[in-house]
Design goal:
The chain is mostly beta strands. It is about 0% helix and about 50% strand. It has no helices and ten strands. Strand 4 and strand 5 form a beta hairpin.
Length: about 120
């Protein structure tokens, strides 16, 4: 079955950086675009960024454009999200999901907290 395991979250200061990873198994990773979504406390799911199966195209929400970069390593079956210049409003549970701008199936998430 599809398994997506996120890691790399934690506490960061405003202006800091974190790199999230998502290890995929149970499906042919190279056949699918992949997505990061997030959920802030008390809010609904928000699409963050997506990447084609061959990484030839990416898209990002306006709120993270220029700060977050999505990438993937198909040989390692791993999805990444490099997050720079973090802001308190980036605080959320971050999930990786299979598909383009999709939220399901997704992993259990990794918590990112941005605070001084």
């Amino acid at each position: 079955q599809v398994q997506l395991v996120e890691s790399g979250g934690g506490l960061a200061q405003p202006g800091g950086s974190l790199r999230l990873s998502c290890a995929a198994s149970g499906f042919t990773f190279t056949n699918y675009p992949m997505t990061w979504v997030r959920q802030a406390p008390g809010k609904g799911l928000e699409w963050v960024s997506s990447i084609y199966d061959d990484a030839t195209n990416t898209a990002a929400a306006e709120s993270v454009k220029g700060r977050f970069t999505i990438s993937r390593d198909n040989a390692k079956k791993t999805l990444y999200l490099q997050m720079n210049n973090l802001k308190p409003e980036d605080t959320a549970l971050y999930y990786c999901a299979r598909g383009w701008r999709s939220a399901w199936p997704r992993g259990q998430g990794t918590q990112v907290t941005v605070s001084s």
